[in-house]
Design brief:
two-stranded antiparallel ribbon, homodimer, 18 helices
Chain lengths: 375, 375
């Protein structure tokens, strides 16, 4: 594959991403200025919206129309356990928490603990279960409201999910999953069935509460093929099509290609990384937009748009537009060196992780409050 | 399809069945005289074995070796709810009860209440659930020991089954189910996944009791493709290959082709049929081996081997070999008319159903005693 070519599927994101191309190929809509303003009227400002990190959607206008009519929606997002949580995961969930708070919405958080087991040859079932426990801690640590947040674990709640998944599955042929996910005759039959399990939380609250409730799914754009299929099927079962709001990927340390991913361990920053580890990774791997020598840098300035330390500030760690702008200008002018920029990012990440790690440990006793219990 | 050609898959049995061909094609073993004797030493005589109604097996010798060593097995059979129970179903379960009693074995009885929903276009989920309740009554009415019999319902026990089914599914590719079940790209993804759910009860007791326990599956030979696949996979997951003992099909009223099946309502006798209904069906449809006129019949005699009323006596309703032989000879000689033979069968079936229907109604309050409860 040439470096310029990109590939975005639920299981692989590679290459330099052209989000306009993704919008066109996936058939999602860009969030217009008008729609953003309408959203902000209810939620207040959010830098992830403002900076186009959440940049695309499906049926968001319809969802807000329903909301205005008093037809409240629930939020559905999830995490497929297969490794430790990195910053790329947290980004989506921080925005999800913002939405939950702003709309006072119920959140159904799915942990499809069979997905990666089915898709990764060498991942065994027991390890997936260990990651499940670990991953739940990170979600809880972000401060979701336990009264309004329900963890749905595919294997544990299969008695709720599987019957509904069968109803979805009856409407999906192998041809459809072949074209949506690039599966083939060598795919295992668990992989083939899987998308019907991922569809269920988009209407499970409607089934439980015996009324049709709109659903909003905040997710990274690579998951869109699942929900595109889900949107085709759900009206056939008498449910609303779920709306979605989609974000781009937090880039890996190595540069603006692909996404931060657990498959390249040293190129991701995990929530359990020590301050020293964060420092080492940023200093060693974070792709720099600076010039080769200090002299050149001072003269010509750096390029913040390709600088990963700057990107992390923009995506997650410097919500203040004014401060971000100052760093941008200072780096671009050459006044700020790459070393200085990296140090700002290291400090910001470590500040955040110090708190997060405390909350994470405190979350151990709270898991049971979040796991959905049937009445 | 020519009338002589037969087709045996888990979803279709048609044509005139050549069981020797089925044995060869499926790769099962005929139950030898020696093996039958060894079995009878433990169980005592059984007319279904003696008359080769249960005629084939896989690994039965191994199972008895283990039994002799003190390694007891459990029995697994099942019923996929999609309609009322007919005599063909009862036949297998009567033999299953005989085995349970003879070996004092635990029985795990699966109700895969999603299977027919997934495979029958017009069957809806709610109707399947109604049949599930109805079907359980028939099983209970046969007198299984509730202390040793556990009903496993796919949708209700999915929290137990689905995680294990995923482990099975990871080892089965689409190519494998294509060749085993004749599925194709237009098959829905629930159908494709389904065989992994059917595999689970063959090792679920081993998972629950945390030790490897041999399994015996009594079933009609058309289900063999499921268990052949199951037998390939289970050793890869550390479990025994399940042994099986397989029966031929109770023929439909119309003659010795295919099997009694709910898809042709008037050609099957249901456990809820009234005495009048049984009489009507046998008189109207039961294929007769008699001659066209009484005079001819008296002179040349009838053919009990193709006479369906006689077959029902042989398969289910006249366990006494001596009496069966008398009827055989009498009919063959022409002394017994088709009308008389039909009347014997009608009386036998109605006698049985009168008791069965009483027990069936009394079973309503007992369903909860049979549904498996986790500790």
């Amino acid at each position: 594959m040439k470096e310029e070519e990109s590939n975005v599927t639920p299981w692989e994101v590679s290459g330099k991403l052209d989000y306009d191309k993704v919008i066109k190929e996936f058939g999602v809509e860009k969030i217009s200025e008008e729609l953003q303003k309408r959203l902000e009227k209810i939620t207040g400002k959010n830098f992830m919206l403002d900076r186009k990190i959440f940049f695309a959607h499906r049926d968001l206008k319809w969802l807000l129309d329903e909301y205005d009519k008093g037809n409240k929606f629930f939020i559905y997002t999830g995490r497929s356990p297969s490794g430790s949580i990195h910053l790329g995961h947290l980004m989506t969930w921080q925005f999800t928490k913002f939405l939950q708070d702003a709309f006072d919405a119920e959140l159904w958080f799915q942990f499809p603990d069979e997905e990666k087991f089915l898709f990764k040859k060498d991942l065994n079932y027991e390890d997936t279960q260990k990651y499940l426990e670990e991953n739940m801690l990170d979600v809880i640590a972000l401060g979701f409201n336990p009264k309004k947040t329900h963890f749905i674990i595919d294997t544990k709640h299969a008695d709720l999910l599987y019957p509904e998944a069968c109803k979805v599955a009856k409407k999906i042929t192998f041809s459809m999953v072949k074209s949506s996910f690039g599966l083939n005759d060598s795919s295992n039959i668990g992989q083939i069935f899987y998308t019907s399990m991922q569809a269920v939380p988009a209407f499970l609250p409607s089934v439980i509460k015996k009324k049709n409730i709109p659903c909003l799914i905040p997710h990274a754009v690579d998951q869109d093929p699942h929900f595109r299929l889900t949107r085709d099927i759900l009206p056939k079962l008498g449910h609303y099509k779920p709306a979605s709001i989609q974000c781009s990927f937090l880039p890996p340390l190595t540069g603006n290609s692909g996404k931060m991913s657990s498959s390249k361990e040293d190129y991701a920053i995990y929530t359990i990384d020590s301050p020293k580890e964060v420092e080492r990774k940023i200093k060693k791997y974070a792709f720099s937009g600076g010039k080769d020598t200090l002299e050149e840098h001072r003269r010509h300035g750096g390029n913040p748009d390709i600088d990963i330390s700057f990107q992390y500030l923009k995506y997650m760690f410097e919500p203040d537009d004014k401060k971000l702008r100052e760093i941008y200008e200072s780096y671009k002018s050459g006044a700020m060196t790459s070393g200085e920029l990296k140090q700002i990012t290291i400090n910001k990440i470590n500040e955040f992780l110090k708190e997060h790690q405390k909350k994470r440990i405190a979350s151990k006793s709270r898991i049971k409050d979040f796991i959905y219990k049937k009445d």
